[in-house]
Design brief:
By secondary structure, the protein is mainly α. The protein has one domain (about 5-150). It has helices at about 5-20, 25-35, 40-55, 55-75, 75-100, 125-150.
Length: about 150
């Protein structure tokens, strides 16, 4: 990714963070959440619960340890270290920005929360940062290896 695009994405993140910090309830957020929650498809509910469980702490710990072990067995120590560090970086960024932004979760009377959440702060999403750090790196490795084989 080139530097100009990185700066643009960083700027978008900062603008979004400032906006979210200054607005407890973002009407677009609430509209999208309520619209999705009003979809009464059995398969959609199962899909959303599955996706949410991918971000559970025990799931990402098992995924991370499995990936590190897999790369170590393949003697790909650099990849094992990078994936481990990317997750640590994602966790650090999540905690750092949650402290700075301190955006509370929406009131459970406004949206359905399918389980009691342990944390009060909601932005940025630890689920999303984990997904970017872990799955993003895995997809990058797949792309890199496929590109080599197709060339």
């Amino acid at each position: 990714m080139n530097k100009k695009l990185q700066l643009i994405l960083l700027g978008v993140f900062i603008l979004l963070a400032v906006y979210v910090k200054s607005n407890y309830i973002v009407s677009t957020d609430l509209f999208i959440t309520q619209t999705l929650q009003n979809l009464n498809f059995f398969w959609f509910d199962l899909l959303m619960k599955f996706i949410s469980k991918l971000g559970y702490q025990i799931t990402w710990i098992i995924s991370l340890l499995g990936a590190v072990l897999f790369f170590m067995l393949l003697k790909k120590r650099k990849e094992a270290l990078v994936i481990f560090m990317s997750i640590l970086g994602a966790l650090f960024l999540s905690e750092f920005f949650k402290i700075i932004i301190a955006r509370p979760r929406p009131d459970p009377n406004l949206i359905y929360q399918f389980e009691k959440l342990a944390r009060f702060d909601s932005y940025p999403s630890g689920h999303i940062l984990f997904a970017i750090g872990f799955y993003g790196f895995i997809f990058y490795l797949i792309y890199k290896n496929l590109k080599k084989r197709l060339a």
